[in-house]
Amino acid sequence: MNQFDQRNYSIIQRVNTGVQSFLSQVYGWMVAGLLLTAFVAMYSLNSGIFITIATNNVLFFCMIIAELSLVMGLTFLLPKLSAALATGMFMLYSLLTGLTTSVVLAVYTGESIASTFVITAIMFGALSFYGYTTKRSLTGIGNFLFMALIGIVLTSIINIWMQSSAMHWMITYVGVLVIAVLTAYDTQKLKNMGLQINENDKEMMRKYSIMGALSLYLDFINLFLMLLRILDNRR
């Protein structure tokens, strides 16, 4: 190997190390968020807190608004936030999601929740692996996925009043497909982000790893909830 090749190999090796370091933080924080959500949801179900949330519409919607505010804050104010504050906001979001999700989980059996979680983890892992390893650029589908998500949210809101079973299942199956593709897309986007971040800038590395963790966390939670609807093994 000549000197030029050795220099190129060294550069590539440093780049790969930086990406892997960034993604390991992303997945680490994502798992931490999921574990907190699972613990809080379990505690809420066992203690009966979910009943208070489910029977108090004002409390429930205030929690939903708080969750949306945290996501919007992390998304649009990230450059101005400290790494510690961004981390705190993500963990608070994970805690609130555990409380609100417990209201949904209360109607399903423990076996159904556990089996759906395993299926979700396998699907998510496979899709994320594809997004990381594929040579095909997924950048072009970003706008389509965003519009599809907006469509799913709007039709879901409309169906609250329509109560259409057909629309419910259409939203669910389309939602699974969109989130599956979004998982691969987000993973590739985070891989590309890792190429641009200076791994020596610990503050920036932490902030953007939290943002990446939030993206993948949302993919996982939404995929889990939609698969739970499809399997539909209620108490």
Average residue-wise pLDDT = 90
The proportion of residues forming helix, as a percent range, comes to over 70%
Strand count = 0
Give the SSE string.
Answer: HHHHHHHH
How many domains, in number, for the residues? 1
Strand content: under 5%
* Uncertain regions spanning at least 5 consecutive residues: 8-14
Main sheet record: none
- Give the termini distance in whole angstroms: 65 Å
Number of helices: 8
Main structural class = mainly alpha
Please state the overall shape, judged from the principal axes of the Cα atoms: globular
Which labels suit this protein?
235 residues; 8 helices; Inner membrane protein YbhL; membrane
Question: Would you mind describing this structure in some detail?
Answer:
It is a multi-pass membrane protein. Pfam families: Bax1-I. About 3% of the residues have low confidence. It contains eight helices and no strands. Helix 2 crosses helix 4 and helix 5 crosses helix 8. It is globular and about 50 Å long. With 235 residues, it is mainly alpha-helical. The longest helix is centred in the first third of the chain and has 45 residues. It has one domain.
Topology of helices and strands:
Elements: H1 3-47, H2 49-55, H3 57-77, H4 83-105, H5 110-133, H6 142-162, H7 165-196, H8 202-231
Helix pairs in contact: 1-4, 1-7, 1-8, 2-4, 3-4, 4-8, 5-7, 5-8, 6-7, 7-8
Summary?
This protein has 235 residues and is an all-alpha fold. It is built from eight helices and no strands. The protein has one domain.
